[in-house]
């Protein structure tokens, strides 16, 4: 793992040497995020978002553990205990708003992280496994977020639980028994709440485990970079510490600043007012929408309105799950040998159309299921699938790509020097390189 | 890597006293993060302190009009038992007959009761050893060798002023803050 010129861990202190012979944990850290991990020197700020997602997960786990000390997973007491956290517990409002907005920020940084991967071809060989493990993390995140949203047992919690578990009811024959099994009854109730709480507590640790695999798989070939050109020599890399710890630290500062703005000034901006009404199984809220981070998928779900061989409901559910499962095949759908979108002019254009398409889907998903939103969702859904199943495979055959730089250091020193070279180095080096 | 080391030597940027601009930025950034991290610890720690609804129960009013001389009642304050005992003249005399200075936790009955209400002994029903509820408040319970309270867990004996006289408990039964609002009503807490 890593390049031959990576720094080796050489503990100086006798205790650290004693430790290294018995439990080489400092060595592991050194080689993973310390001086021992050489990283391409030209990473831009889009490479901050993996670390930011890790930070967001940490924040969710810490605040979540604390909230669980006050939350009561019972149909009778869940709503009241949530309000108890907001009103009575010392700093409870702060911790809950951190947790709720932290979930949104986790998704924001993860979406940017995913689109970074899509633009720079991070899913291409040799990093297919990194990509697929990332998708597993994304699916686990969605499950965790959904179950977390049910816990306050407000109107949106209850009806969200009913609607989302209803997705499984679309499966022919076994669908309805599966739905009944999932919620432990005929409608969400105590059994649903207790199991969701249990799983909501468990899954973040599963995510943390898959993140370890994700990073492990990443460190075999090493990080990608904006040119998509492989690392060839020591001139192409800088050690992770201090260069990227500092750069990620800067990103983390901005992330926390924006999170603080939301927590302190707009704590309910991303929430839904209906969830401050206790769950009522006799009245559905006028307009039922999931959290914003599910909107694109919700739009795909609702885009299917005709029974075509199979019932429309089943098509919607298959398309919604398919829109993510499809991404597992991306490394084999896009066979272009050039990784980075910066050297693929046509791909780049279609990439931005895809971004716009997903934003349109998201917009429609947050709107009521009426015209023109249904029609727009249908067009956008077709385009989403066309992008991956038709456009990308064709592009990878016909596109004429731009010439790649010979090496990362060359790309840095000729043309992009100002933006990509670490301080002090870029200018001092050309004569020697 | 070699290039990195070379360049750092090539551009020492040493200014006054060998402190570089980067050193200052480094220290400032790490300190700022440290202060921020420490500040975040405050709500994470204080959330475990009693919440507002718990503190709201921290004051109770008790009607003591029905307690006859020689009787005691148990009530609940802050989720803990409280003993309110109407001492008989003999019990007060027994408590006052003891030389307080020779006790493990020297206190006189006067120090443990209120002026004008010397017969009312109000204490927490929590043994100061390890927190069991001592016997002696209810009718027919064992009152220990000194006629006050007896903790069955580890054998602490308290006298009629609820002072520790024998056994492992380190201090007398705690007297909570209280005041007589009228002759028959006590506010505890």
Can you describe this structure?
The complex is a heterodimer of chains A (433) and B (189). With 433 residues, chain A is an all-alpha fold. Chain A is 61% helix and 1% strand. Chain A has helices spanning 14-22, 25-33, 49-68, 78-87, 92-119, 128-150, 155-168, 175-183, 190-219, 240-265, 295-302, 312-325, 330-333, 345-365, 373-398, 408-413, 417-420, 425-428, and strands at residues 38-40, 237-239. A two-stranded antiparallel sheet of chain A has the order 1-2. In chain A, helix 7 (155-168) packs antiparallel against helix 8 (175-183), helix 11 runs antiparallel to helix 12 (312-325) and helix 14 (345-365) runs antiparallel to helix 15. The model of chain A is unreliable at 416-433 (pLDDT under 50). Chain B folds into two domains: 2-46; 54-188, Rieske Iron-sulfur Protein (3-layer Sandwich). The longest helix of chain B has 26 residues, at 21-46. Chain A binds chain B through residues 5, 7, 38, 62, 66, 69-70, 84, 87-92, 94-95, 234-235, 237-239, 246, 249, 253, 256, 422-425, 428-429, 432-433, and chain B through 1-4, 6-8, 10-11, 13, 22, 29, 33, 36, 42-44, 46-49, 51-54.
